[in-house]
Design brief:
- The structure holds 2 protein chains of 2 kinds.
- Chain A is mostly helical.
- Helix content of chain A is 84%, strand content 0%.
- Chain A has one domain (23-256).
- Chain A has helices spanning 2-27, 35-47, 51-74, 82-120, 123-129, 134-138, 140-172, 177-187, 190-216, 227-256.
- In chain A, 43% of the residues are buried.
- The mean pLDDT of chain A is 93.
- By secondary structure, chain B is of the alpha/beta class.
- Chain B is 38% helix and 22% strand.
- In chain B, helix 3 (101-112) packs parallel to helix 5 (146-158), helix 4 crosses helix 5 and helix 6 runs parallel beside helix 7.
- The radius of gyration of chain B is 21 Å and the shape is globular.
- The model of chain B has no long low-confidence stretch (mean pLDDT 88).
- Classes of the chains: A mainly alpha, B alpha/beta.
- Chains A and B meet through helix 4 and helix 5 of A and helix 2 and helix 3 of B.
Chain lengths: 257, 273
């Protein structure tokens, strides 16, 4: 019986540990000195450094969506609905999910590796003995910065995606641009935009929690020690973040619709 | 500078990792205002002892007293407050790789005071000057040699002028000249801060000869010797004599080459290929 329950107990223990880690991350907001500077630096690292990849992915997502939707809707003579379809797809699903996945790949993995290396090279112990709370110093600024950058980058992804859809369906193909933009205006509501920002914020917390937690506990991993543990922690962080983003997306969508 | 000198007393300490006990019923005293060196073979528990003293690991039983204050009976908050008075030099310096040397040295002041940036940088530069690294203030740790990183780590450890300084193998991996400079630096610190209690974990008998005022020798997690340097050199305990005279154990001598013939054949095939 004990052996059967052991994995479930271990999972529960880990979830509890992650919840405490997250709570500590938020609690340190009120205790960390010179937080604004650290948050701004992380806004630059997570946000500005991810901008190019978000612009690129957003543009090509819009281009492909516009192209596919144009031909699919032509079969029913419903090209006029393309703007609505594209905007709603981007705002409700594609932009928050793809932005979060791209930031995980671009900044989340680097975060795990950085914190993991700090852990195995005694840098986190050094922070502790200097009475600098490691979670306040390393996690809290990233958490707060992600709550600013994820919604911003999601908005940018959406705008660029809509522009990409316009390029492929109106400039390269034959759709009337008035029909494209009026379709967007008539179908997108404030609830859709609020839902988009809510998803971006939830994904931000998931990505930072998973990536920082994996790096912070790299030394406790059973599948490797030292540099190997950091590599495995980075892989786990990316995989787990992507899976949790999709799971959370389903749960949130089912409540928002 | 805190004028109060703290002694460190350890009473019946048991500690280790999970069920693996490294220190067993360990007791020792490190006198206030002296340089105590902790000696011992690899794996005898020196680093474990240091981690227990720093509160990075929890002891399973026993007492650790800093200036008469029992840290095992303290709450986490009380202990963190006490730990502010420790300076620690980790084995490889443990400098934050994303900060320059000046930023690393100023870090404890940046995080715990509201001083202006100019004052913080000046304090960091003055401390770096003490360890001969003021010209490298804007270098990152990755751009420096191991010896320089250790000296920078020492600068960060003393920037708050702590009453207790811990150094984990400050001379390991250094050439004899740099190691001698490091030893001299610790003596200079002692001259600058006479009330500082310094604990140095080392393998280096040359360092012991040069800096130690009090010596602890660990053997298999227990205290094998505690006393002055002179008492250590006069000791006739067989283990201490072997340690000081750098003599090996007969039972550990290599009787024959460790590889068997099949491995050697495979190797020669590879080498001839």
């Amino acid at each position: 019986m004990k052996e059967i329950c052991a994995p479930a107990i271990a999972l529960l223990h880990r979830l509890g540990d992650m919840a405490c880690f997250l709570a500590d991350g938020f609690r340190q907001t009120f205790r960390t000195r010179r937080l604004a500077g650290k948050v701004l630096r992380q806004v630059y690292v997570i946000g500005a450094n991810s901008m190019f990849v978000i612009l690129l992915i957003g543009l090509f997502t819009g281009l492909v969506l516009g192209l596919q939707a144009f031909y699919a809707m032509s079969m029913f003579g419903a090209q006029g609905m393309l703007g609505s379809l594209l905007a709603l797809t981007l705002i409700r699903e594609m932009a928050p999910v793809l932005t979060a996945v791209m930031i995980t790949a671009r900044a989340g993995s680097a975060m795990t590796a950085e914190i993991g290396v700090m852990r195995i090279s005694d840098q986190i112990d050094a922070l502790e003995v200097m009475d600098i709370h490691p979670i306040g110093y390393l996690v809290t600024p990233r958490l707060l910065a992600s709550l600013i950058t994820f919604p911003l980058l999601t908005s940018i992804f959406t705008v660029i995606g809509i522009f990409g859809g316009y390029l492929s369906s109106c400039v390269l193909l034959t759709l009337n641009e008035g029909r494209y933009f009026s379709g967007i205006e008539s179908s997108v509501t404030m609830d859709d935009i609020q839902g988009c920002f809510l998803k971006a914020a939830v994904f931000a917390v998931i990505v930072i929690l998973v990536c920082c937690y994996q790096g912070y506990n790299a030394h406790l991993r059973k599948d490797g020690k030292g540099a190997e543990a950091v590599g495995n922690a980075t892989t786990s962080a990316v995989v787990m973040s992507c899976v949790l983003i999709l799971v959370a997306d389903y749960v949130l969508t089912s409540f928002l619709l | 500078m805190n004028k109060e000198a703290w002694d460190i007393s350890i009473e019946s300490l048991n500690g280790g990792y999970g069920s693996h006990l490294v220190l067993r019923d360990f007791s020792a005293v490190m006198p206030a205002g002296t340089i105590t060196t902790i000696l011992g073979e690899s794996g005898c528990g020196k680093t474990t002892l240091l981690r227990l003293l720093l509160g990075l690991n929890r002891p399973q039983s026993g007492r650790i007293l800093f200036g008469g204050r029992d840290v095992c009976a303290m709450s986490d908050r009380q202990f963190h407050k006490l730990r502010r008075r420790f300076g620690v030099l980790f084995q490889d310096g443990a400098l934050l790789s994303s900060l320059t040397l000046a930023e690393n040295v100023a870090l404890p002041l940046v995080e715990h005071t509201r001083l202006p940036r100019k004052v913080l940088r000046d304090a960091a530069l003055r401390t770096l000057e003490l360890v001969g690294l003021d010209k490298f203030a804007d270098f990152y740790p990755g751009e420096l040699s191991g010896g320089m990183r250790k000296r920078a780590g020492l600068a960060r450890a003393i920037v708050t002028e702590p009453p207790v300084l811990f150094c984990d193998e400050p001379t390991s991996g250094l050439d004899p000249i740099t190691a001698a400079q490091m030893d001299q630096l610790l003596l200079d610190m002692k001259a600058c801060y006479p009330h500082m209690t310094t604990v140095v974990v080392t393998h280096d008998l040359g360092s012991v000869e040069h800096i130690a005022e009090h010596v602890l020798v660990l053997k298999e997690g227990r205290s094998a010797f505690s006393g002055s340097k002179e008492e250590l050199y006069a000791a006739d305990d067989p283990y201490l004599r072997r340690f000081l005279d750098r003599k090996y154990e007969e039972s550990r001598r290599m009787a024959a080459p460790p590889l068997d013939s099949s491995v050697r054949e495979a190797l020669s095939e590879w080498l001839d290929d």
